[in-house]
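Follow-up to my earlier ticket, as requested here are the two runs.
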Amino acid sequence: MAPIGASRNWLSVILIALVLITGCSSLGQVQTPEIQPLQPDVLPSGNGWWYARFRLNWPPNTDPIWYMDLYLAHQVILPLLQAHQNDIHLWRFHRRAARDGAGRQFSFIFFASPRTAQKIFQTLQSDPMSANMKSGGVIDDIVCDNPAELTRPNIEDTSDKNWPVSIQKAWPYYIMGVSQMWLNLIAEVAGDDLKSAPPSSIEEIETFYKQVNQAVTDLWQKQGRHAFMHHLNALFGYEPLIYIEKRYLTF
């Protein structure tokens, strides 16, 4: 007859084995549903990406004037976003300055129907504030896509083609949030001053948005590490990334 202690040990082994067998059998019957990436709404067919490019004057041997982008975003694009908020599914800003064929540009990029694009482009081309900027030599031209030609129907069509496809498809949602945050910062900083003494000439507009740009830049430089970069890093589990200097950096 086996010792009592030995019998108990064998019984424990048998019970554990039964749990493992039944557990594996149970898990093997679990059905996982097909899960699609989360989207704010279903992007309708027949829609696509459209560009409105503001080409700004950039004289040779001078630094680019970045603060006029804030004016265009706040005074020209924000009213359009408010007027067409139910028709624009995704949108963002793009800012560039390079001594090439495109030069100094501020772009409004949005995903909508050709009809919505046509309305927005007509508004931009007839906007009196933009016309004043053109006549005053601040804006060289406003270049819009042809709404009769839909050439970018897919969500990834304006993303960097060097990225993995997964990032190309997810990135438009990220950059739209960033663009809205930047636009809201401009509106918050400019709001009170515009109510009390709105600028009434090109010179006053330039002076005003230069000050707004400095205030927004100060917020970015002093608060951006924690408010923006730290919390973005947190979403990815604080994993380090390869920084532009080719070294790992956490925020």
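Run two:
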Amino acid sequence: MIRIGIVGFGVVGQGFVELLISKKNEVSKMIGDFKVEFIADSKSSISGDFELDEALKLKKMTGRLKDDKKPQELVEDAEYDVLIECSVTKLEGGDALRYIKTALKKGSHVVTSNKGPLVAEFEELMKIAEKNDVKLMYEATVGAAIPVIRVAKGYLKTFTIKSVYGILNGTCNYILSRMEEEGLDFNQVLSEAVELGIAETDASYDIEGIDAAIKLVILANTVGIRAKFDEVYRKGISYITPEAFRIANEKDYTIRLVAEASKDKLSVAPRLVKKSHPLSIKGTMNVVVFKTEEAGELYLAGRGAGKYETASAMISDMVHIYAPSS
């Protein structure tokens, strides 16, 4: 019986549990029987014998779970084989960094969607995992369900990766796409994106390139390019005008926020992109390009965010721990 602990019960955490329920038979066939031992969010928790449906209902109806045990208490004291960590990202790692370290040192695997701890202490976390002979899985941190990390660490393991670049933020890509297609002003499109729920009310994390830079750091470290957040050159998109798109269009170019990592460059900034290039992808889509010595450029594209997209990546990571060939 695989014992699961869950920390973080917001959109992604609830999505993970919903998928566990709906895909119980498929997951069980691949990894065997499993049981969720506890679920904790920042204000409440539930542990012991409980039904997953019960936890979802409590959270949706009351905004909390039934007990007052704190996440750190459960992470330290409960018995579990894998910790699913999907609390809110904080750039410096926040409490999630402590949860992940605690679980790894206990000899438990960790699957996380939280970018903060990986940006703060990527190498240290990998060393702790290796020392304790457990896995730290983080597919959901970059590109959601696009198997970027799995490809980088698996299929491309024997390739020489010269650089990695791409569109890593769907909100920025949506805004730039709309400006391009309809000649709209940046602020007008941003307001629309907020109304549609594509952008947060405070969208600075996205439009200033912070989110893309965080993901770039994780991706760079994954492929062996040492990177820290404060080393990334970063420029946002708020200064771009419809006129800039008009001029670019005359030469068959568009403008996209491109993140790029190589041994000589760590950058997130708007760039001119040929309309025929895969980086000219539209809407909220993401695309990652691995530039290899042996096979040239390899492209991965898809929806890089979303409740079930992110949760499905976490389910996949958990399955991969126990059934690597699945």
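The only thing I checked on run two: The first helix runs from residue 11 to 22. Let me know what else you need.
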